[in-house]
Amino acid sequence: MTTPISVSACARAATAEEAAYRIDYPLAYARSTRVVAFDETAAKTVRSVSDGPWGKAQFYTTSDSGEELITLDGERRPMAMEIEHSDSVIMVATNSIVSNAAAAVGVACRERSIMTAGLLLLDAGALGGDALSALRPYARILLVPADEEDLFELLKGIRA
Amino acid sequence: MGKLFRRYWQPVLHTDELPEDGCPPVRVKILSERLIAVRTPEGEYGLMDEFCAHRGVSMFFGRVENGGIRCPYHGWKYNADGQAIEVPSELNNSEFCKNVKLRSYPLVKVGDLLWAYLGEPKMQPPLPTWEFATVPSGQTFTSKRLQESNWLQALEGGIDSSHVTWLHGGGPTGAGLEADPLFAGAKGNQYNKGDVKPSFEVVENEGGLLIGARRNAEEDHYYWRVTPWVLPNFTLVPPRGDHPVHGHFWVPIDDENCWAWSFDYHPTRDLKEAEVAAMKAGAGVHSKNIPGTYRPEANKDNDYLINRDKQKTGELFSGVEGIAIQDSSLQESMGPTVDRTKERLVATDAGIIKARQKLRRAVEALRDHGTEPMGNVPEHQNIRSVAIVLPADQPFVEGIGDGFEARAGVRQTTV
């Protein structure tokens, strides 16, 4: 099949001049994001980043079992209900990660087809296999090592 | 960002663009500067301001002579360093010459390429040591093509592994990976097909990042494809079987165009005739260019020759032939510089987010503290991409070990 070449072909459409005609409208916050810290060090990072200019992002720590998410104000809520209407969950941890909690949240996300990302903060030393094993099966993408700015940039990038 | 780029050697020409001593000069545009490259009859390479210091005519029309190049307008002559050595109209010729010098940059041959350094002379880093450029000549092949987008759009395609299943996909009878002579027959292709939803791990590395895409393999094992990115603009593609390793340099011409340098090399054997023939024909990461130019035959003027029938049947998922053009067609379609405030990134774009962050940090560190950027020293350049099967609970960096190191005479780690 031959391809007809019209005046709106790529050669014109992809110029800087034509780019000026692209419809300009504000982007809505696209992500209903949950950010979960799985240990105390991770919680400090999450707490620090939570002050950012976020739309629908919500920030938590977890109970040891992961069955509850704990808001930064200390309110305990059932994990399954908190993530039910989210479309991405960011899992933040260090080598001190509580594996059971990560597994509980990870499985819940998988069952609901919720996108997950993992950030392993490793200021305290080299990557431990346990931390990796705890997050790897559940994180669609894992940043190793990550830091506070990574979390900020990721949330900004996905318009959380 | 321009100042950052000026801390690196960048490929600017194939050696066959200046094929012999005393050959015609070649125009070079890089980092928004218009330059002229010369090879004097004595074999010296020079890279200097394209325009004569007298009246600003292009030295492309100059005559290459012993000791340099002479402007055809009034006969001003410059050596390979851009220093005026003859100004025929001046009585006190030598004294006047001393004060006339075209801006010039070092141009050196490493492998089959000519590399330029456009930064401060005192900050010049060691010569490039990339393996594709330093293996014996018969083991490597490099092509280049014009990409009509800014370099970062192109680079981000190079580290965005999640597009591969889509954009480069093809049906069972189509031009998918198994149909490309530079990819076919590798066991890794089976893992690719067996798990079309890879997960990713982005790992810090001394020269940049390692971006690992993992797929399920045999029980309790993952098949890893690890793409290194070295600042600012070098990427490698993970190998397949005994096929050559491939990769790219994305070199800014200006804000809206770049050169996509694409290479294939094998660390331990010569490339086969059939492989080189396929590369020259535009297979793998290479492109079929308009003869005598570096512009692809499928370009934005002809909508990249998109074939809607093949797109509809799935023979070619994108409808566009060839991996290189599949990439460039979409990256150019975004416009010369995409408006990133309009993006809707997803979590799997974390590699891109991380790369932007590292570039920004490098620019700020150089600007604010004069910190030398990573990637311009041999320790960061002696790197390989890897494809490997590892136990599920193992950090891939640990499992691959020295497989990331470019070592002469040692085969690449590949599946």
UniProtKB/TrEMBL annotation, chain A:
<protein>
    <recommendedName>
        <fullName>3-methyl-2-oxobutanoate hydroxymethyltransferase</fullName>
    </recommendedName>
</protein>
TrEMBL record, chain B:
<dbReference type="InterPro" id="IPR045623">
    <property type="entry name" value="LigXa_C"/>
</dbReference>
<keyword id="KW-0001">2Fe-2S</keyword>
<dbReference type="InterPro" id="IPR050584">
    <property type="entry name" value="Cholesterol_7-desaturase"/>
</dbReference>
<dbReference type="Pfam" id="PF00355">
    <property type="entry name" value="Rieske"/>
</dbReference>
<keyword id="KW-0411">Iron-sulfur</keyword>
<feature type="domain" description="Rieske">
    <location>
        <begin position="9"/>
        <end position="116"/>
    </location>
</feature>
<keyword id="KW-0408">Iron</keyword>
<keyword id="KW-0560">Oxidoreductase</keyword>
<dbReference type="InterPro" id="IPR017941">
    <property type="entry name" value="Rieske_2Fe-2S"/>
</dbReference>
<dbReference type="InterPro" id="IPR036922">
    <property type="entry name" value="Rieske_2Fe-2S_sf"/>
</dbReference>
<dbReference type="InterPro" id="IPR015881">
    <property type="entry name" value="ARHD_Rieske_2Fe_2S"/>
</dbReference>
<keyword id="KW-0479">Metal-binding</keyword>
<dbReference type="Pfam" id="PF19301">
    <property type="entry name" value="LigXa_C"/>
</dbReference>
<protein>
    <submittedName>
        <fullName>Nitrite reductase/ring-hydroxylating ferredoxin subunit</fullName>
    </submittedName>
</protein>
